[in-house]
Design a protein that fits this description.
Oligomer: single chain
Structural class: mainly beta
Strand order of the largest sheet: 7-8-9-12-13-16-17-18-19-20-21-22
Number of helices: 2
Radius of gyration: 23 Å
Number of strands: 22
Order of helices and strands: HEEEEEEEEEEEEEHEEEEEEEEE
Shape: globular
Strand content: over 45%
């Protein structure tokens, strides 16, 4: 999984608000403890969830990606804005290759673990393609019924089923039409869906010494069983072409991240909601042997809907929204540049002028210096 690769970074901290099980939420923070201060993107397309400010990466497999680019701190080369306090993680999807490549993997293991993935890349004439499919399943370590003390006062303890099963599915498709060596148009579709039983992750043993003598001490306590479902969709159309002495690139994209939780709630990550984001941007960049500079801008609309849980009588229809829908538009203009004054030293800077319909207008500047003492 992607999170296993990110764990090799010294500046990455992982938060698992629903426990450390593989079926639980896993978010990453760069250079600090708050994951909402780190941006997560797919091919430059922002994916952070509007509810918690980050993205659950627990079920992202490696089969659909060619690289993960990490910028720590205020690296000005990303154009998402000036709010990357911790840094940015850009997941680079599979790209077309000149020669055709195919890979198939089938695997299985203990606790009902199985995975099958297939990917392919290549080029036919001017058309390049990249595709990936991934299917993962696991029963998990815990699959039992046990007495549990919870907020349900009708029984103490209540016989509760605790599980840790996971089923996740991914599909990626990319098509690139090349007009020339430095001009092309790319369309990319990405879908990730998973269903997880978090019952074993959010319930635990009561080991508080102050509870000695009470029926709950040393017994299982928690909110009860819970099923967590997540869907991430990301659509992107991007292109580039020479313009004057530089290169003009543009992007149109849309994404949504929905979470549906049934059962006891344990954290803000377990709220039923849907986050949507629509984005359009243009950038002109000129590159020299030891420097480059760019001008550009983007406009983004974000919407976040919180939904009430299923009615207590078990009817399939949702109740009215628990909170009003939230939305905002963000317009950003930026100028950024960087150069290498001496060997091993890189200096970068950027200025961002932002207008939020919810927060007003502000101008932010940022500066970064990187000294590479050694290739390692």
């Amino acid at each position: 999984h992607i999170v296993e690769g990110l764990q090799t970074l010294p500046g990455a901290t992982f938060a698992r608000p629903d426990g450390g099980a593989s079926s639980a939420v896993s978010v990453v923070a760069l250079r600090g403890p708050d994951p909402s201060e780190s941006l997560v993107a797919l091919d430059g397309q922002l994916l952070n969830d509007g509810n918690t400010g980050d993205l659950d990466l627990a079920r992202f497999p490696v089969a659909a990606f060619s690289a993960v680019d990490v910028t720590e701190g205020l690296g000005p080369q990303d154009s998402n804005g000036s709010n990357t306090f911790g840094g940015a993680i850009d997941l680079v999807s599979l790209r077309p290759t000149e020669a055709p490549h195919y890979a198939l993997s089938l695997s299985g293991g203990s606790f009902g673990q199985s995975e099958a993935w297939l990917n392919a890349t290549g080029t036919r004439g001017r058309l390049g393609y990249a595709a990936a499919l991934d299917n993962q399943n696991q029963t998990g370590y815990v699959n039992t019924t046990a007495p549990l003390y919870s907020t349900d006062t009708t029984c103490a303890p209540c016989a509760t089923r605790l599980g840790s099963a996971v089923a996740s599915h991914l599909a990626l498709g990319t098509l690139t039409w090349s007009f020339a060596q430095n001009a092309d148009l790319t369309a990319r579709v990405f879908v990730l869906g998973d269903d997880r039983d978090q019952s074993s992750a959010i319930n635990g043993i009561d080991a508080n010494a102050a509870d000695i003598g009470t029926p709950a001490y040393g017994q299982l306590i928690g909110p009860g069983n819970q099923t967590f479902a997540q869907v991430v969709r990301a659509y992107q159309l991007r292109g580039r072409a020479p313009l004057g002495a530089g290169e003009l690139s543009g992007e149109l994209s849309a994404s949504d991240n929905s979470v549906d939780v049934t059962g006891g709630s344990a954290s803000p990550y377990d709220l039923v909601h849907r986050d949507e984001r629509y984005n359009g941007g243009l950038t002109w960049q000129r590159t020299f042997p030891d420097s480059q500079f760019a001008f550009g801008g983007y406009t983004r609309y974000e919407a976040l809907d919180f939904l009430a849980p299923f009615p207590a009588d078990g009817t399939p229809a949702r109740a009215a929204q628990a909170q009003p829908a939230l939305g905002q538009t963000i317009d950003v203009l930026f100028a950024r540049g960087g150069f290498t004054p001496i060997a091993k030293l890189r200096l970068d800077g950027g200025v961002f002028a932002s207008r939020y319909t919810t927060f007003g207008t502000n101008i932010d500047g940022r500066f970064g210096a990187i000294f590479s003492a050694d290739p390692r």
